[in-house]
Amino acid sequence: MALPRCSASVRPLRKGTSRPSPLTLPWPAPLAPSPPNSAPAPLAEAALRLLALVCSDDFLAGLFDRHRGRCYERSISFATFVHLLADALLEHHASGRQSFLRAQEDGSLPASLSAMYGKLARVPISLSQGFLLECSAVLQRLFPQAARTPLPPSLAGMNLVAFDGKKVKHVARRLKATRGQLGQLYGGKLVAALLVNSRLAVAFCAHPDGEVSDTPLLPGLVEQVREVVPGVRLWIGDRLFCDLNQPGLLTEQGDHFILRYNARVSFEPDESQPARQGTNSQGYRYTEQVGWIGKQGDERRRRVRLIRLYRPGQEDVALVSDLLDAEQHPAQDVLDAYLLRWEIENCFQQITEVFELRHLIGSTPEATVFQASFCLLLYDVLMVLRGYVAQGQALAAEEVSLEGMFGDVQRQLISWQEVLRPEETVALVRPLTEERTQERLRELLGGQWTERWRKTSGAKEPPAKVPKKYPKGGHTSVFRLLHPAPKSD
Predict the structure, then answer these.
(1) Contact by Cβ (8 Å): 149, 198
(2) Could you tell me the sign of the dihedral formed by the alpha carbons of 224, 3, 375, 194, in that order?
(3) What is the gyration radius of the CA atoms in the chain, in angstroms?
């Protein structure tokens, strides 16, 4: 399998000269033999091994058959399609043209560029959803146990699932209908789920219209997550999902929920149970009260526990949950669990800024959704690599910078692909079982570390927003801002 080709910056040769073979260069004296588990590009090999599991031709062929809908293959197989998208996102800074042209040169794209762009424009959303669902299920099994997220004690036996919606933005105005259109232009809309225990994105449900609401997509997402995440699930969502319809959905099959309270939903306290109060680990006061959301006579009315955290100078945080027993599930644990919902916000930021979701290859809603799906997969791959690095260094996974690691992964992939031909990569990165893949990842990444990968900590509070001023005439200079003219009396 041709995964993936890279375009390194190579100094051009003078006319009439040829590049010498690495084997004929005047190398210095032979070095000491490498340790048996060492590798010249450990990050590249680790990434290629993970991608080889979820992007193998047989795996992708079966995935395509299960989720293709009315889509079909002709000259461009789904495996070829995925490999070329991997090239574009991993090594060409989301330039589909560069990836497709190189594929035409080496014969791996037996079709025109317009055919490839057309296939991307028509990818069924069901296929995009199934792609992440099945690939992430494989990566979940490979994630190192020692790198999992520490959970609040009373919730340690649950699988915490954070979910939120995301619009795909930055769509290029290439389609005829979008030319000349001003303002923000959205692609598709996703509601994605992230398993907090491992911080891996596990599924999403999408709609081609980026302007639709998030809540209609939640049932489809919940159905997918229950296929791949076993046990008791604790669903964690923002206030947009706090209404009278979602609690019934989220508590099916013995699951539980924590939602940020939306004041549009009425809450009636149970006067027979006195309110409780306490102080959290940061010294903020909180209160908790058992009661009902919804009015009497509404069949959707549900008994919940309302926890309100008071933060001086900031907005209060109010949560509703069906974890009613304050002794079994202390308020501090519920508040800490909700803070972990921020991991999905971090995921959205990473796929946008690090994995090139700001540079969309296609302009149709379906193309934007598939690229978002692939970016979520790349995020999961890097999270698994980060987990093995953190485990080998006895660090918490959040201490390792994902962006810092990704830069070195790209650099090693470029070196790898410029030195080795695709068939040599296939021979070196032979398919392994999942158990042997885990062993190889520990061998490759257990001793890998550089201080450049340590995430910056102790960030200061963001400065208060400065009111914006429009300069006279619509322009000014930095010098005049630094050295304003004295005011005349």
Answers:
(1) yes
(2) positive
(3) 26
- Burial annotation 130-155 (CB, 10 A radius, 16+ → b, else e): bbbbbbbbbbbebbbeebbeebbebb
Domain ranges across the chain: 37-63+85-120+374-453, 258-332
What single letter denotes the amino acid at residue 378? Answer: L
Distance CA 376, CA 381 (A): 9
Q: pLDDT value at position 432?
A: 86
Distance between CA atoms of residues 77 and 2, nearest Å: 13
Closest CA to 85 of 126, 123, 136, 58: 123
Please write the tens of the pLDDT for every residue from 405-428: 999 998 998 888 888 877 788 788
Q: Are 247 and 218 in contact (CB under 8 A)?
A: no
Q: How far does CA 22 lie from the centroid of its chain?
A: 38
Which pLDDT does position 460 carry in this prediction?
Answer: 58
Which tokens go with 5?
């080709």
Our CA dihedral for 475, 480, 484, 488, rounded to 10 degrees, sits at: -70
The SS3 assignment for 291 reads: strand
Would residue 86 be called left, alpha or beta, if left means φ above 0 and alpha means ψ between -120 and 50 degrees?
Answer: alpha
pLDDT digits (tens, 9 = 90+) for 440-458: 999 999 999 999 999 887 5
**Kind plus residue range of the DSSP H or E element containing 366:** helix 365-392
Residue 317 β-bridge partners: 309
Whether the CB-CB separation of 98 and 105 falls below 8 Å is answered with no
The 10 Å Cβ neighbour count of residue 83 is 25
In degrees, rounded to 5, the angle at the alpha carbon of residue 177 between the alpha carbons of residues 174 and 183 is 80
Residues facing 289 on adjacent strands: 306
Does residue 477 surpass a pLDDT of 50? yes
Dihedral-angle region of residue 177 (phi above 0 means left; psi in -120 to 50 means alpha; beta otherwise): alpha
Residue ranges of E strands in 264-365: 267-269, 276-279, 285-293, 302-309, 317-321
Q: Could you tell me whether strands 159-167 and 233-237 are parallel, antiparallel, or unpaired per DSSP bridges?
A: parallel
Cβ(28)–Cβ(22) below 8 Å = no
Handedness of CA 473, 476, 481, 486 (dihedral sign): negative
- In 3-state terms, what secondary structure has residue 218? helix
Tokens linked to 423: 């068939």
CA–CA separation, 150 vs 377, rounded Å? 23
CA distance 222 to 224: 5
Q: Tell me what pLDDT residue 183 has.
A: 87
Question: At residue 290, does pLDDT exceed 90?
Answer: yes
Q: Could you give the CA distance from residue 244 to residue 257 in angstroms, rounded to a whole number?
A: 13
Convert the pLDDT of each residue in 338-385 to its tens digit: 999 999 999 999 999 888 888 899 999 999 999 999 999 999 999 999
